[in-house]
Amino acid sequence: MFRVKAVMLDLDGTLINSAPEIASAINLMLADLNRPALPAKQVERYIGEGAAVLIKRCLNSQLDVSRLNDEPDAALFAQAEKLFFAHYANNVTDSKPYDGVIEGLQALRDKGLKLACVTNKPEKFTLPLLQKSGLAEFFEMVVSGDSLPKKKPDPIQLQHICAKLDVHTFEAMLVGDSETDITAAHAAGCFIVTVPYGYNQGRPIDESTVDAMIEDLTELVSQDLITVLL
Ligand SMILES: O=C(O)COP(=O)(O)O
Ligand SMILES: [Mg+2]
């Protein structure tokens, strides 16, 4: 049982199953660059540290795995980023929430918790996606990957949200799907709960690094994991 005033929720892989649309936009980008398409599951493994890291990994995917995060040629990267952003703008709002998300958010809000969305996704994609999927109304705050000078795994987004919501970080919980979320939550000093269905670079979550694991968002309330601090 965790005593909190606020719950922060990751977006890609926690609230929304965005990998299929991200993979198709990536493959349209690669086609424009005359490069071979990547399997959607491979693109999914590159998600989690923002658009720039995703694009770099896709451009480096033919190289030895140890060079996945190398800096590609700057002109090539700039061209790829422009193409990816243009293609992703066309399908970003097609992505859908996972089962249990709407019900889970409703139950958290009904308990009187303050809710915020924290994502490494750029803001120009985050906001339309939240609007179109019907999730925007649940959040008092949304902090995207380019809203602040740094993003997860840095704790700055979580610290910023807690300061704005007027809660201590130890009175807040992050619900996420990846080691990026776990590292950020540990650094901020908030609780971390994970879902198993998202994008953790192809690895299962290490249970010993989290406060709890849930199958879907409804379990936060149905399993009595949260007590609301007054
Ligand atoms: O855009 C990403 O890299 C991942 O976004 P997330 O932080 O919502 O999982
Ligand atoms: Mg995520």
Automatic annotation (TrEMBL):
Active site per UniProt: 10 (nucleophile)
Cellular compartments per GO CC: cytosol
EC id: 3.1.3.18
Biological-process GO terms, alphabetical: carbohydrate metabolic process; DNA repair; glycolate biosynthetic process
Alphabetized UniProt keyword annotations: Carbohydrate metabolism, Hydrolase, Magnesium, Metal-binding
Pathway the protein takes part in: Organic acid metabolism; glycolate biosynthesis; glycolate from 2-phosphoglycolate: step 1/1
InterPro entries named in the record: HAD-like_hydrolase_sf, HAD-like_sf, HAD-SF_hydro_IA, HAD_2, HAD_sf, PGP-like_dom2, PGPase_prok
Catalysed reaction equations from the record: 2-phosphoglycolate + H2O = glycolate + phosphate
Pfam families for this protein: HAD_2
Chain residues that bind Mg(2+): 10, 12, 177
Cofactor(s) needed by this chain: Mg(2+)
Signal peptide coordinates: none
Record-level Gene Ontology MF annotations: metal ion binding; phosphoglycolate phosphatase activity
Coiled-coil ranges from the UniProt annotation: none
Enzyme class name: hydrolase
Family assignment from sequence similarity: Belongs to the HAD-like hydrolase superfamily. CbbY/CbbZ/Gph/YieH family.
Biological role: Specifically catalyzes the dephosphorylation of 2-phosphoglycolate. Is involved in the dissimilation of the intracellular 2-phosphoglycolate formed during the DNA repair of 3'-phosphoglycolate ends, a major class of DNA lesions induced by oxidative stress.
Protein name as catalogued: Phosphoglycolate phosphatase
Organism for this UniProt entry: Methylotenera versatilis (strain 301)
Lineage: Bacteria, Pseudomonadati, Pseudomonadota, Betaproteobacteria, Nitrosomonadales
Gene that specifies this protein: gph
